[in-house]
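TICKET: design request
STATUS: open
ATTACHED STRUCTURE:
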């Protein structure tokens, strides 16, 4: 028998979550953001659940080929554009729309031989300071692109640094609006947090993390607040039970010591499966749907949890590390991420290759 750990991707949850984005931005077209292998879910596994999107947005050309191989004929957007001139060939062959964020990418386009002019999204650096033309250079870039026979429609795109936090989006929105005021073209501004938290609609909104059932602004709001469902479950089983006496400790570094008699379960899940080692004692976990906490350090292949108060749990009991538990129970990935000092994005993207994944309810 293989180790009892598995991950399950839930297509119905993906579809539900995407519908939430639609409801929040009803007159916008919707990019399903599937970079990083659909945030760790697997592009092919996530595709069915996300196919009601108007397009797929990602970064990696190999991932764009995989979306086409799923049978998708609609728009695909490369969020970082081309990395070298010959990427433009694949953009032509696969009909990929691409971001243009730097002058070099315009040079490459100008030298590119294509039958079909390309749809491009010109990126404004409105304050994030990662990619995009500075406001003073934006119009010049637009004029240059507009003169190229290689370019078809030009759309305008920017990205928010603080849509999930207290600073908000107003300062960047003001820069975008001033800079692009009299330029034609479709607009794409909103990520998940801007869609849900700020209700910001534009021609093309970009739904990433919300589709996967993680609240972009946790802990201010959780998935229940936004009516999102976990799109990934990580689960395993208890493979051993130990009875501790007061003073006994658990695992490497003896970082947890029992204060009283305590029954603990040992679970076949560790950091080599993608469960974060930064989770300290007390991180939330479900045993047969009942909530308890981890104990001591997470090791490579195992972790321990508290079974006091769970007398019926034992070897073979189902353990939900995140996602859906038995009987309609649920543990949001955001809660586990918070216990590890990180965000849901990182946990889902870090699901380890050794964990078997299947598509299921
Ligand atoms: C990843 C990404 C998104 C999606 O962000 P979420 O917070 O996951 O919704 C949107 N736009 C760009 C440019 C991105 O890189």
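STATUS: resolved
RESOLUTION: sequence designed for all positions
ATTACHED SEQUENCE:
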């Amino acid at each position: 028998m293989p180790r009892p750990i598995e991950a399950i991707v839930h297509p119905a949850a993906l579809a539900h979550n995407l519908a939430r984005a639609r409801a929040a931005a009803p007159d916008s077209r919707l990019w399903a953001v599937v970079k990083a292998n659909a945030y760790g879910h697997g592009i092919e596994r996530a595709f069915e659940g996300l196919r009601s999107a108007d397009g797929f947005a990602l970064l990696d050309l190999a991932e764009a080929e995989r979306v086409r191989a799923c049978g998708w004929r609609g728009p695909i957007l490369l969020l970082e554009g081309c990395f070298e001139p010959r990427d433009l060939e694949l953009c032509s062959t696969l009909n990929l729309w691409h971001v243009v964020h730097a002058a070099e990418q315009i040079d490459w386009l100008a030298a590119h031989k294509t039958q079909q002019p390309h749809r491009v999204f010109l990126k404004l650096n409105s304050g994030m300071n990662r990619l995009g033309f500075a406001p003073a250079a934006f119009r010049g870039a637009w004029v240059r692109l507009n003169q190229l026979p290689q370019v078809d429609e030009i759309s305008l795109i920017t990205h928010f640094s603080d849509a999930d936090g207290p600073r908000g989006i107003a300062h960047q929105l003001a820069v975008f609006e001033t800079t692009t005021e009299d330029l034609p073209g479709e607009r794409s501004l909103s990520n998940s947090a801007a869609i849900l938290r700020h209700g910001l609609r534009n021609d093309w909104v970009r739904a990433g993390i919300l589709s996967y059932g993680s609240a972009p602004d946790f802990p201010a709001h959780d998935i229940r607040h936004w009516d999102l469902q976990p799109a990934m479950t990580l689960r395993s089983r208890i493979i051993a039970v130990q009875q501790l006496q007061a003073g006994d400790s658990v695992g490497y570094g003896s970082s947890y010591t029992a204060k009283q008699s305590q029954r603990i379960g040992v679970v076949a899940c560790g950091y080599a499966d993608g469960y974060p080692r930064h989770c300290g004692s007390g991180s939330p976990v479900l045993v047969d749907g009942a909530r308890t906490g981890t104990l001591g350090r997470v090791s490579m292949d195992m972790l321990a949890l508290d079974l006091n108060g769970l007398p019926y749990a034992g070897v073979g009991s189902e353990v939900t590390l995140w996602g859906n538990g038995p009987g309609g129970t649920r543990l949001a990935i955001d809660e586990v991420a918070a216990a590890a000092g990180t965000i849901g994005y990182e946990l889902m993207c870090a699901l380890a290759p050794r964990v078997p994944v299947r598509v299921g309810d």
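CLOSING REMARK: The radius of gyration is 23 Å. Residues 33, 35, 79, 159, 191-193, 206-209, 216 surround pyridoxal-5'-phosphate (CB under 6 Å).
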